[in-house]
């Protein structure tokens, strides 16, 4: 779940590690221009729903992926909130239960999803449409794995830097029960949620 204080929160030393990828002001354009990565291309974006809820990365490299869930199965409500809601929040990508991929913020811009300004600047935020208690759906999982795999290749992001929102850290149990079948869940702590996400990634060939 995207935190409702998008750029609030103290500077956290856990995210001061050296950058993994060499970037520029527009990391997305730079990666495409350089022909970064190998393997399957970017999954098809089924809908582009641009929001004004974003800002500049100020030259920060993209070196993390943050995984969220929406707490609601209403994809249209989430899209509307990311466009018009208050306080202003957003994510780069939104994945429906049916596997539909919606993009709302370009990779080269900072989406307001992590509740931490530094992490917002250096990460891609992916929301999964799911109610409280829902596990990741089969078609949703396929799209998510394809997107995460492409982002990892495109921006040279190691698996260790693909994290659930709870690891930012914030006062959140996100990404909920998406990966409860792999040892995660709302009652699990940050490390258990991280291990569950990575176990799911392994099961998807990532």
Automatic annotation (TrEMBL):
User: Entry's SUPFAM superfamilies?
Assistant: N-acetylmuramoyl-L-alanine amidase-like (SSF55846)
Which keywords accompany this UniProt record? Answer: Cell wall biogenesis/degradation, Hydrolase
GO MF term set: N-acetylmuramoyl-L-alanine amidase activity
The EC number(s) attached to this protein equal 3.5.1.28
Q: Where is the signal peptide?
A: none
Reactions listed under catalytic activity:
Hydrolyzes the link between N-acetylmuramoyl residues and L-amino acid residues in certain cell-wall glycopeptides
Keyword Transmembrane on entry: no
* CDD domains linked: PGRP
Highest taxon of source? Bacteria
Q: Name one GO biological process term.
A: peptidoglycan turnover
Q: Which InterPro entries match?
A: Amidase/PGRP_sf, Amidase_domain, NAMLAA_amidase_2
Spell out the protein name for this chain.
Answer: N-acetylmuramoyl-L-alanine amidase
Show the taxonomic lineage: Bacteria, Pseudomonadati, Pseudomonadota, Gammaproteobacteria, Lysobacterales
């Amino acid at each position: 779940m995207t935190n409702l204080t998008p750029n609030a929160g103290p500077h956290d030393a856990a995210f001061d590690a050296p950058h993994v990828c060499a970037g520029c002001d527009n990391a997305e354009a730079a990666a495409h221009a350089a022909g970064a990565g190998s393997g399957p291309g970017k999954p098809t974006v089924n809908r582009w729903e641009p929001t004004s809820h974003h800002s500049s990365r100020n030259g920060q490299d993209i070196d993390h992926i943050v995984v969220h869930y929406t707490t609601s199965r209403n994809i249209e409500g989430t899209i509307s909130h990311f466009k018009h809601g208050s306080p202003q929040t957003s994510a780069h990508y939104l994945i429906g239960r049916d596997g539909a991929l919606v993009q709302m913020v370009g990779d080269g811009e900072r989406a307001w999803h992590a509740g931490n300004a530094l992490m917002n600047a250096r990460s891609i935020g992916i929301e999964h449409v799911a109610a409280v208690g829902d596990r990741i759906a089969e078609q949703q999982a396929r799209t998510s794995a394809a997107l995460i795999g492409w982002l990892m290749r495109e921006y040279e992001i190691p698996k260790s830097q693909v994290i659930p929102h709870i690891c930012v850290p914030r006062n959140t149990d996100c990404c909920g029960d998406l990966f409860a079948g792999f040892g995660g869940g709302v009652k699990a702590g940050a490390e258990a949620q991280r291990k569950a996400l990575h176990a799911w990634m392994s099961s998807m060939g990532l």
